[in-house]
Amino acid sequence: MSRNIRWLIVLSLVSIALVALAACAAPTAAPAPTSPPAAPPAAAGGKLEMFSWWTAGGEADGLNAMYAIYKKKYPTVDVVNATVAGGAGTNAKAVLATRLTGGDPPDAFQLHAGLEVEKYEPTKYLQPLDSIYTSEGLDKVFPKDLLSLLKYQDHYWGMPVNIHRANVLWYNQKVFADNNLKAPTTWDEFFKAADALKAKGIIPLVVGTKEGWEAGHTFETVLIGTLGADGYKGLWTGKTQWTDPKVTDALNTFKKMMTYANTDNSALTWDGAAQYLVDGKGAMHIMGDWTDGWFISKNYKGYGWAPVPGTTGIFDALTDSFAAAKGAKNQDNLNNWLKLAGSKEGQEAFNPKKGSICARTDCDPKLFDDYLQSAMKDWSANAIVPSVVHGAAAVEKWATVYKDILNTFATKGDVAATQKALQQACVDNGVCK
Ligand code: GAL
C-alpha cells in the first residue's frame, strides 16, 4: 500500500472522530479568520517566544540547533525559550491553554499534528498558516496525507517539523549478547527473555510512570501488537469495540509486563527509566524514538532497537508541529521562525539530534544515524497508525481519559474494570454506542 493511501486511512479515522466530536460537543469557536498573516519583512530586534516541553537531552538539543540557525539569521532578535518540563506535554499543555485563554500567548508553541488542535479552539486562538505554506511551497515537500492531517476546518494550523515513531523497543546490546538473547518479536519471546534476565538479577523492562502518560504510551503499542494495525485504528473510529477479547488479552499482557518492571517506576520519568539501560542494570525499554535523541545526547551507543513485539511492519506515528498564537506579540519574528521550522535547513539541523525523521521528504539521509535511517525506511514501507497519547488518534479529552485509565491500571491491575472504563470513554466521546 502506498504511503498516500496509508495516511489517507489515518485521515479518514481523524475525520470520523471529528464528526463524532461535533455530535457530542457544542461548538464554541468563533468564525474562521479569513486572512492569514501577511508575509513579513525581515525581522529587526524584538523577541520571539517559543513554548514547548522539550527540556530533556536530545529534544532540547534539537530545538537549540534550530535556535542557533535562527539567531544567526536574525541576530538582533531575543529568542525566549519558554519550556514547561514533562514528557508528552503533561504539564505544558495546561499552562499553554491558560496562557491562550488569558490573552498572554507565547508567539509559537509545540502542537501535535492531528486531533490535538481541537483542544485549542484554533479559529479563536490560533493563526492559520496557509499563506506561509504557499509562499514556502510546502505543499510540494510534505507528504500529501500529512498535509491533510494538518488541515483542520480547512486551514493549516501547525508547521510540522518531524515524524516520530512511538512503538520502539530499545535494548541494551551487551546485556542481550551476554545472555544469548535476540530482540523479541512476539510476546512469548518477550516473556521468555524477561524470565532469563530476571534470573540474572537484571531488570527486564524499565518503565517510568511518574508523569502519568507513559503507561498509556506503552499500552497503545501493546494494543497495536495484539489487534494489528486495522484492529487498533478501529478502536478510535468505533469499528473495533473496546469490549473485544483482544483488548482483554492486551490488558493481561501489559499487566504481566509490569511484573517485570523496575519497582521505582512511579518515581521515574521516561528518560530516568532509560538511564537503567545506559547503566546496564536494565535490559528493555518501550518508548518513542525521542529516546534515540536522548541516547545520542548521553553519548551512549550500546543500544539496539526493534519494533515492539507484534508490531513489525507497523509504524505508530506522531508529528510535532509549531502553531502560531493569534495575538502573538512578535509577528514578523514568528513568521520567520515558522519558515525556518518548515525549511530543509531547519529540519536537517533539528531532527538528527531530536531522534526523529523530517516531515519533509527531501532531507539527506546521510545526516541521520543508523536508527533514524531505519525509521525512514519503515516510514515509507510500513502500515501507519496514529498515536493516541501523542495527539494524532483522538481528541485531547478522550486521550486524557485513556491515559488516566491506563495510569491507574499500571498500579491496580484490574483488567475487567479497566476494559469497562475504556469502553465507557469511547461511548462518552460519541464513537461507541
Ligand atoms: C512527545 C513529543 C516528542 C517528545 C516526547 C517526550 O509527545 O511529540 O517530541 O517530546 O513527547 O517528551
Relevant terms:
alpha/beta, five-stranded mixed β-sheet, 15 strands, four-stranded mixed β-sheet, 17 helices, 433 residues, globular, binds beta-D-galactopyranose, 47% helix
Would you mind describing this structure in some detail?
With 433 residues, the protein is α/β, with parallel strands linked by helices. Helices cover 47% and strands 15% of the residues. The chain contains 17 helices and 15 strands. It has helices spanning 3-24, 59-73, 92-101, 122-125, 130-135, 144-150, 173-178, 187-199, 214-235, 245-258, 270-278, 290-297, 331-342, 344-354, 370-381, 396-412, 415-428, and strands at residues 47-52, 78-83, 108-112, 151-152, 155-156, 158-160, 162-165, 168-172, 203-206, 282-287, 303-307, 314-318, 320-324, 357-358, 383-386. A five-stranded mixed β-sheet has the order 2-1-3-13-6, covered by helices on one side. Strand 1 (47-52), helix 2 and strand 2 form a beta-alpha-beta unit. Helix 9 (214-235) crosses helix 16. It is globular and about 65 Å long. The structure holds beta-D-galactopyranose. Beta-D-galactopyranose is lined by residues 53-54, 59, 87-89, 112, 164, 288, 290, 318, 320, 390. Residues 53-54, 59, 87-89, 112, 164, 288, 290, 318, 320, 390 line the site of beta-D-galactopyranose.
